[in-house]
Amino acid sequence: MTDLLHTFHDVLGQHGLVPEEILADGTLHRCPTEGKPRKLNGAYIAHLDKPATLWWCNWETDDQGTFCIEEKQTLPVSELSAWRERQQSIRRQREEECTRRHAEAAQQARQEWNASRACDASHPYLRRKGIPALEGIRQAPDGTLLIPVLDAADNLQSLQRIYPDGTKLFLVGGKVSDGRFIMQGQPESPIAICEGFATGASIHLATAGRFMWPFPQIILHQLPRA
Fold it and tell me: Rounded to whole angstroms, how far apart are CA atoms 207 and 190?
């Protein structure tokens, strides 16, 4: 392994990616992560020709970035032009990968949702928060609460898992931007926007209110962006 590949390997390792080898061919490659070494939740694009460039993404942590062996300001005009073209190629491949990951996660979300059941009112998380098993949430066979992440057309695009101990995790690779969870309220009641299922459920129970973001006459649990 060359010194440059060693440098790339160290950079990926700092961000939790553990590829068996680095293929510096300018195309996107998936690789394992420290958190889940048996899955391919990491990705990178490596270029060795000047200016040597590396892009990475860790889907488990939503960490992504670009490393260049040289400072952009010091590049000669010819290499600066190559660097800009390379950034466009990386951006295009990154967007394509993002679309693929979102599609895969949406399919997984649908499978988990179809395998789930109605939520148990005595679920430890719900009891601890003092809220009932409201319509629209489900429970996985292992007891995990499933909160749907819906798109503007009410299609399931991802899931938030809430474990009995309160740990909350979104589906790795799932699209969360523009996502929402809807609880229907009274047409004339106040409109509220909030983050967090338990918070939204508490407001809903206390006010029978509506959330509006961006549609009228709905209760909306707004989720953070991906």
Answer: 8
Residue among 114, 51, 40, 121 nearest 86 (CA): 51
- Beta bridge partners, 146, equal 138, 161
* The model's pTM: 0.76
Indicate the residue type of 211: F
Please write the tens of the pLDDT for every residue from 50-62: 889 999 999 998 8
pLDDT in tens, 12-51: 999 999 999 999 999 999 999 999 999 999 999 999 988 8
- Full DSSP string of 38-106: TS--EEEEEE-SSSPEEEEEETTTTEEEEEESS-GGG--HHHHHHHHHHHHHHHHHHHHHHHHHHHHHH
Cis peptide before 32 (omega within 30 of 0): no
User: Which residues are registered as beta bridge partners of 222?
Assistant: 180
Residue 54 backbone phi and psi in degrees, to 5: -135, 130
